[in-house]
Amino acid sequence: MNESSRREGNRKAPQRLILMIAALAVMLGGWASAAPSADAATASCGDGRCIVRLSKAETVALGQGRVPAVPAATPWQLRASYFALAQGHRLIARQYANRGWCSAFLLSVRPWENQGYTGYRC
Fold it and tell me: Which are the contacts of 96, defined by CB distance < 8 A and separation ≥ 6?
């Protein structure tokens, strides 16, 4: 891998992160408006890292494929990304929910850090 392709990959990483955060914000925004409760998703961000923790109820809802609809004015590229994100995580969320776990999204601007979707005991 040469230096120019390495720099190109580093430039694309923030773009991918922005798309992931936008899709996640749309998804969580619908859940938060549908059920404002003490068990709603919580997010903690700082130093280029964010952890969005879903409650048990939200993990179960994601596992059952119940996700908020994307606004009609959303470009088709974001709609496709949102649908793929929701459907891809649905099967994993169902397994976490069956164990009684909650789930979380880990996001970081640093490409070498742990990122993605994970489960935890709640």
Answer: 59, 63, 102, 103, 119
The residue type found at 99 is R
Terminal Cα-to-Cα distance of the chain (whole angstroms): 42
Backbone angles phi, psi at 2, to 5 degrees: -85, 170
* Cα–Cα dist 76/29, whole Å: 19
* 3-class DSSP state of 67: coil
Please state the pTM of the whole predicted model.
0.62
Q: Encode the chain (122 residues) as per-residue pLDDT tens digits.
A: 555 445 544 555 555 555 556 556 555 555 444 444 556 788 888 888 899 999 999 999 999 988 888 888 989 998 998 888 888 889 999 999 999 999 998 988 888 888 888 999 98
What is the domain extent for residue 79? 3-120
Number of domains composing the chain: 1
Distance CA 56, CA 96 (A): 9
